[in-house]
Write a structure and sequence with these properties.
The structure holds two protein chains of two kinds. Chain A is of the alpha/beta class. Chain A is 27% helix and 26% strand. A five-stranded mixed β-sheet of chain A has the order 2-1-3-4-5, with helices on one face. In chain A, helix 2 runs parallel beside helix 3. The mean pLDDT of chain A is 87. Chain B is mostly beta strands. Chain B has one domain: Immunoglobulin-like (Sandwich). Helix content of chain B is 13%, strand content 45%. Chain B contains one helix and eight strands. In chain B, the strands form two sheets. In chain B, strands 1, 4, 5, 6 and 8 form a five-stranded mixed β-sheet that branches. The termini of chain B are far apart. About 6% of the residues of chain B have low confidence. The chains are: A alpha/beta, B mainly beta.
């Protein structure tokens, strides 16, 4: 019995010590994050790619409408061609927000490559047949605005095994801004982010 | 003649005391002697109507440096404009060479800026 009690107490003591030694979770300071880089993509990489893309678009003049008006932008397909599970909205949302703030562009959520992003624009129009709704408050036909431009792209990953056994991972953020009327790409941009680390690191 | 001298002196005095609303600042003391800011150019792009800022500097050392910069934009009333450009951006600076920072304002309301350069 005494031996059993000793074992239990030792186990509890060890568990207590281990929990005390465990690294504490800390919140990242996203404004000045000096944390170690990871082989995969993190928010710093998306911030950099988005900031570079927006600056490049604004500098190019592709978003300057002659009338001074805003272009209507639709979000087309942005392909994740990496080995990681990435929601490409992590990149596109930042670009959209900044472009909207620029006053040069307004983004439509009624049409995109994957169908309407906000299905309510269409669903609210189905109320036209519903007598329960005041028909004067239902949207008239022909009010939706079709897009002038489309933003599409791809995020690529390329893994390179180095001679010393380390691994190099290259990420390519490639974006195109296409005028829908002509199908011509008025702006194209590429941001490359490269990382080099242990060959044992897994970048997916 | 003396009147004119006084007038010019007063104008100069006032211009020197005026609030410096836009500026470029090297934040870290340890690199203040390493880099020199040679020219700051501003223009309003006639097509976009956006303010553009270009800073020309020089790395006066024999070593490559990876610096960072961030720019904070303000409207005419002095209110900060939220922008992705307020995040730190990497700036490669080659040894004994010039470097350029070229930034476009996030929108037409952005008239003043503070540009911070850090290591």
């Amino acid at each position: 019995m005494k031996r059993f009690t000793t074992i239990i107490l030792s186990a509890l003591l060890a568990a207590g010590l281990m929990s005390g030694c465990a690294d504490k979770t800390e919140r990242i300071d996203i404004h000045d994050d000096k944390g170690d880089q990871v082989m995969g993509l993190d928010y710093r990489d998306f911030n950099q790619a988005a900031a570079e893309a927006v600056q490049s678009m604004l500098k190019s003049g592709a978003l300057d409408k002659k009338s001074g008006d805003r272009y209507v932008l639709a979000i087309s397909r942005v392909t994740n061609d990496t080995m990681q599970h990435i929601d490409t909205d992590q990149l596109i949302k930042k670009i959209r927000v900044e472009l909207l703030r620029s006053g040069k562009v307004v983004v439509t959520t009624a049409v995109s490559a994957n169908g309407a992003e906000d299905k309510m624009s269409k669903q609210a129009r189905e109320l036209r047949e519903d007598d329960e709704f005041n028909q004067r408050t239902v949207q008239e036909k022909g009010q939706l605005i079709a897009p002038d431009m489309s933003l599409s792209g791809k995020i690529l990953q390329r893994n390179v095994r180095m001679d010393d056994g380390r691994q190099q991972v290259e990420y390519y953020f490639m974006l195109s801004l296409t005028e829908i009327k002509t199908g011509l790409a008025w702006w194209e941009g590429e941001t490359i982010i490269g990382k080099r680390g242990s060959g044992k690191s897994v970048s997916w | 003649m003396r009147k004119w001298i006084w007038l010019v002196a007063i104008v100069l005095l006032f211009s020197a005391c005026a609030d410096k609303t836009s500026y470029v600042k090297v934040v870290d003391d340890s690199i203040k002697g390493d880099i020199a800011i040679e020219k700051i150019s501003e223009r309003i792009n006639s097509e976009s109507g956006l303010k553009e800022l270009q800073v020309l500097g020089e790395n006066e050392t024999d070593k490559y440096m990876k610096l960072r910069y961030r720019v904070v934009w303000f409207d005419k009333d002095g209110f900060e404009i939220e922008s992705i450009a307020s995040n730190w951006v990497e700036l490669p600076v080659y040894k004994n060479a010039n470097f350029t920072i070229h930034i476009v304002a996030p929108n037409k309301n952005a008239v003043d800026y503070r540009l911070f350069i850090n290591k």
